[in-house]
Amino acid sequence: MAKTIMIVDDSASMRRVVSIALKGAGYDVLEGADGRDALAKLTGQKVHLIISDVNMPNMDGITFLKSVKQMPAYKFTPVIMLTTESDESKKREGQSAGARAWVVKPFQPERLVDAVQRLCLP
């Protein structure tokens, strides 16, 4: 059975690029247009990993990450932050909120898929 990855990004084209790379590697994909939209879609189903942007309207990625970690069903779900943000203080904030990896855009899809394979829950 395919593992499910959630992509959270306010850019539809970025969600599409990531989705194509993940589907090509055999994953199922859920999408959220921002943190609030993604939280509404986390309804208890198994999600093996979340990839989230940092800078988004309605709810940014760090706030989303903190909210996800409060949800019993997703407390241990690994999160990769995929962002244009390369500021060290932002990275530290993301790590302390529970991010397992920080990938800076532009990124190479195969490197992202490698990170997903390494961090994905069994």
Task: Write up what this structure looks like.
The chain has 122 residues and is an alpha/beta fold. The chain has one domain: Response regulator (Rossmann fold, 3-Layer(aba) Sandwich). The protein is built from five helices and five strands; from the N terminus they run βαβαβαβαβα. The protein has a five-stranded parallel beta sheet, sandwiched between helices. Strand 3, helix 3 and strand 4 form a beta-alpha-beta unit. The protein is globular, with a radius of gyration of 13 Å. The termini are close together. The relative contact order is 0.19.
What's the quick description here?
Keywords: Phosphoprotein. The chain has 122 residues and is of the alpha/beta class.
Sequence-ordered SSE layout with sheet pairings:
Blueprint (H helix, E strand, L loop, with lengths): L3 E5 L3 H13 L3 E5 L2 H7 L7 E4 L8 H9 L9 E5 L4 H10 L3 E4 L4 H11 L3
Parallel strand pairs: 1-2, 1-3, 3-4, 4-5
Helix pairs in contact: 1-5, 2-3
Number of strands: 5
CATH topology: Rossmann fold
**Percentage of residues in DSSP E strands:** 15-25%
Distance between the termini: 11 Å
Chain-averaged pLDDT: 96
Cross-sheet strand order for the largest sheet: 2-1-3-4-5
**Uncertain stretches of 5 or more adjacent residues:** none
CA-based shape: globular
**CATH-defined superfamily:** Response regulator
CATH architecture: 3-Layer(aba) Sandwich
Number of helices in the DSSP assignment: 5
Domain count = 1
Q: How would you classify the quaternary structure?
A: single chain
InterPro entries: Bact_response_regulator (IPR050595), CheY-like_superfamily (IPR011006), Sig_transdc_resp-reg_receiver (IPR001789)
Keywords: Phosphoprotein
Protein name: Two-component system response regulator
GO biological process, one term: phosphorelay signal transduction system
